[in-house]
Amino acid sequence: MNSMSIKVGVSSCLLGEKVRYDAGHKHDRYITDVLGAFFTFVPVCPEVGCGMPVPREAMRLEGDPEHPRLVTIKTRIDRTDRMRAFCTAKVKELEDEDLCGFIFKMNSPSSGLFGVKVYNGGMPARSGRGIFASAVVRHFPLLPAEEEGWLNDADRRENFIERVFCYRRWKDFLLDSPDPERLMTFHARHKLLLLSHSTDMYREMESLVAHGNDVGWPELSQRYEALFMKALALHATVKKHTNVLLHIMRCFKRELNPAEKEELLRVIKEYHDRLVPLIVPLTLLKHYVGTYGQRYLQEQYYLASHPAELMLRNHA
């Protein structure tokens, strides 16, 4: 996969651009120095994009958390319509970027994705969403989206980045003469990865693919894409990973000797008990995959769903 083809939208200030209301930035080194090696970023600053100056008066969300207004704090100027007009045009423009994800600035009245303060007299409610972030997720409902602050959480970081890579694979699949038969292959290669997120949704997708010829391709691909991204949005758990690891181990029931089986079970249990990170049993299993040439497992994205340099499975 050409990582330079993986485009991810990002709030401009997180790349070090001095576009904030105080003429500062919120440069996030993990985004630029680590993720930047694999993603091409499409920066967006909604405030500057809709014509506001740098520096500018600070703003906040007010009113109904479901439909908040964007208001300057001191002069009480309502910027809502101006921002919404920009958002309507910008999401259309972003369609041409072929985005595979978006990283938003936490707590921003324009770009905050979760729990943005909305003032309505008394204590502010932390239930709002920035106006631009809201427009993006509404226009691109399947697009993986996260806030930069939550990338410090290992589980959410892994989930977001994994979804970005999976979305790119799906988009590439659609560009390469897709049909129901090839969808079966795509689905089969993601089997273990999907099972680590949701067995129920995997079964639903399995049924859809099995009856693919009964559904027209446009409907089939749209339904599969929605289920695929919805399943991946459900976080993988230690229990689900353990079940997948045991499933992989069973593929070697004839190849491994008793001592090797005992060692593998011990390592999987250590992972289950949170004594070692997922990478430990995976490394041992991948060794056996290479040794015994298990083609079914060699083709599973679960064993290499993202570049090893990102070290997403290295936390206990």
Estimate the strand proportion.
5-15%
Head-to-tail CA distance between termini: 28 Å
Order of helices and strands: EHEHEEHEEEHEHHHHHHHHH
Helix fraction? 40-55%
Number of domains: 3
Specify Rg, calculated over alpha carbons.
22 Å
Structural class: alpha/beta
| Separate helix tally | 13
- Largest sheet, strands/sense/barrel: 4 strands, parallel
Averaged pLDDT, please?
Answer: 96
Sequence of strands across the biggest β-sheet: 2-1-5-8
The global form is: elongated
Say how many strands there are: 8
Contiguous runs where pLDDT drops below 50 for at least 5 residues? none
How would you describe this protein?
With 316 residues, this protein is of the alpha/beta class. The chain has 3 domains: 3-152, no CATH class; 155-233; 238-310, no CATH class. The protein contains 13 helices and 8 strands. Strands 2-1-5-8 form a 4-stranded parallel β-sheet, with helices on one face. A 4-stranded mixed β-sheet has the order 4-3-6-7, with no helix packed on it.
